[in-house]
Write a structure and sequence with these properties.
- The complex is a heterodimer of chains A (109) and B (115).
- Chain A has 109 residues and is an all-beta fold.
- Chain A has no helices and eleven strands.
- In chain A, strands 2, 4, 5, 9, 10 and 11 form a six-stranded mixed sheet that branches. A five-stranded antiparallel sheet of chain A has the order 1-3-8-7-6, with no helix packed on it.
- The radius of gyration of chain A is 13 Å and the shape is globular.
- Chain B is an all-beta fold and 115 residues long.
- Helix content of chain B is 0%, strand content 56%.
- Chain B is globular, with a radius of gyration of 13 Å.
- Classes of the chains: A mainly beta (109), B mainly beta (115).
- The A-B interface holds A 4, 8, 30-31, 33, 41-45, 48, 87, 89, 91, 95-102 and B 2, 4, 40-45, 48, 56, 90, 97-101, 103-109.
Chain lengths: 109, 115
């Protein structure tokens, strides 16, 4: 079966750096996405990786290793507003998105 | 505001009721999606429409019936639901259903409670 694994919850301190990991086993690979979802709100797109390496976008970066079935989302200079759930999703060989259950990130002052 | 709107935002219904969820996207996209989101579970893809044609039906029970009259509007008709159907129902759209970044834009969701 297809599976996306990410930690259920993480805690970090304001101003620090946090890395959220995602491992996947899917039938084929056509890209990996990270979304942010604040409580009670819609998920919003953060990043897309299809080739190995690091994609940087401001305070957020996303890394992909296809051979290891692994990605991480790196958040720098954490702010209180970064408290949210972070969803990892992989597009499989049928171009269908397979989603992880999300990582709830708690930021403490 | 993502350009995708959903109504109603909250819905409470009995198991014998019939109701409909509505989604509208103002982004000029060609693909629309229905997802179910339950607490601490991955998003479950229910239906996909690409250029108004249904391309995915992920073994969804027949008590959920989608309708896509045009590329901007998507409905989810509900009847004789079960309490376990209580969840957040999210609508999303993308330029098309295929490769490339083609990220999905989500609406705020309808919080459904089945009594």
């Amino acid at each position: 079966g297809q599976n996306i694994d990410q930690p259920t919850e993480m805690t970090a301190t304001e101003g620090a750096i946090v890395q959220i990991n995602c491992t996947y086993q899917t039938s084929g690979f056509n890209g990996l996405f990270w979304y942010q979802q604040h409580a009670g709100e819609a998920p919003t797109f953060l990043s897309y990786n299809v080739l190995d390496g690091l994609e940087e976008k401001g305070r957020f970066s996303s890394f992909l290793s296809r051979s290891k079935g692994y990605s991480y989302l790196l958040l720098k200079e954490l702010q209180m507003k970064d408290s949210a759930s972070y969803l990892c999703a992989v597009r499989d060989s049928n171009y269908q998105l397979i989603w992880g259950a999300g990582t709830k990130l708690i930021i403490k002052p | 505001e993502t350009g995708v709107t959903q109504t109603p935002r909250h819905l409470v219904m009995g198991m014998t009721n019939k109701k409909s969820l509505k989604c509208e996207q103002h982004l000029g996209h060609n693909a629309m999606y229905w997802y179910k989101q339950s607490a601490k579970k991955p998003l479950e893809l229910m239906f996909v429409y690409n250029f108004k044609e249904q391309t995915e039906n992920n073994s969804v029970p027949s008590r959920f019936s989608p309708e896509c009259p045009n590329s901007s509007h998507l409905f989810l008709h509900l009847h004789t639901l079960q309490p376990e159907d209580s969840a957040l129902y999210l609508c999303a759209s993308s330029q098309e259903d295929g490769g490339g970044p083609n990220e999905q834009f989500f609406g705020p969701g309808t919080r459904l409670t089945v009594l």
